[in-house]
Amino acid sequence: MGTFVTLAEVLEARGSPLEEDEVWLNSMSFVLLSGPGNMCSVLSPGSMLLSASGNLAFKSCARSGDLGSFTAPEVQDGHAASNRTASEKMVVYSLGMTLYWSVDYQLPQNQPIQLSGKLNNLLLSMCEDTVQRRADLVTVLETCDQHIKTAQLPPPEKLIKQLVEDVFRDSVSSPTFPFVYEMLILTLIHKVSALQMCFFLRDSSPNSLWTIN
pTM (2 decimals)? Predict the structure, then answer.
């Protein structure tokens, strides 16, 4: 599958929220991967994994950090999913809140989120507190698929690869990155050279005892 980064790491590296087309494509990709048995009911920006090969995955269901904002109200109330539809709607809520978080990332408080009415309505339907009124996975998938075809957006895999590449490019361009690695390399070279010199002196003087510090 390749090297993975989280959605949170993607946004941290770029320092700005996802754009609308990126939200549509990510929604499509994550919905295709979603379903009972494939994931837990609570997703978050830190549990969504994007691969350099264009694939997606989810971290295990181990709870870490504050997930309350991404947890469906019925899950917070301690209600277990009674059927497949109920389970899927828990996932839909969590995915919707995660995507809302990604479009609001580091925006000033007085700056509104820039979304089209269509996408905003979709996310609102995904984040509906009332289970009966909340969109299901099929509705989300069909809405995303229709928009992606109409807008002639690129394949989701292409976007995912680009997002991951941007993270690694940002790491390499970081001012501390080359300095740290240069120091590590110089230290290793120094130690290897010292060891080679000690062994050379030991071999050239068989009657002498040498101690390598």
Answer: 0.74
